[in-house]
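Deliverable D2.4 — example input (structure tokens):
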């Protein structure tokens, strides 16, 4: 869903070519997955609403429905310290950051 969003909402709406970069890193016992696109970006007001709904787990504004569902599953399964956040600059691109626990068997 994160890459799909980058294509559908970022790259598709941009004139010319775009690029999607996926990175995975480990910080202590936390896996950080980032999906960055060079697409159209998100306007500041919409970005604030989107991050607020992700933080509060409230989908009343119906902003970022797919991201909301992924975030909610992460938080319900692993705890409120994990989940998704969004960084973006309009006309520049967007980065989705997902924090997940690293669990050993």
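Example output (designed residues):
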């Amino acid at each position: 869903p994160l890459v799909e969003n980058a294509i559908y909402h970022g790259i598709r709406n941009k004139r010319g070519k775009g690029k999607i970069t996926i990175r995975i890193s480990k910080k202590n016992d936390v896996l950080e997955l980032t999906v960055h696109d060079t697409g159209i970006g998100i306007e500041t007001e919409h970005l604030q609403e989107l991050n607020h709904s992700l933080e509060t787990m409230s989908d009343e504004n119906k902003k970022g429905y797919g991201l909301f569902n992924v975030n909610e599953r992460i938080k319900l399964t692993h705890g409120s310290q994990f989940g998704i956040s969004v960084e973006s600059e309009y006309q520049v691109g967007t980065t989705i950051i997902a924090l997940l626990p690293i669990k050993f068997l």
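The mean pLDDT is 89.
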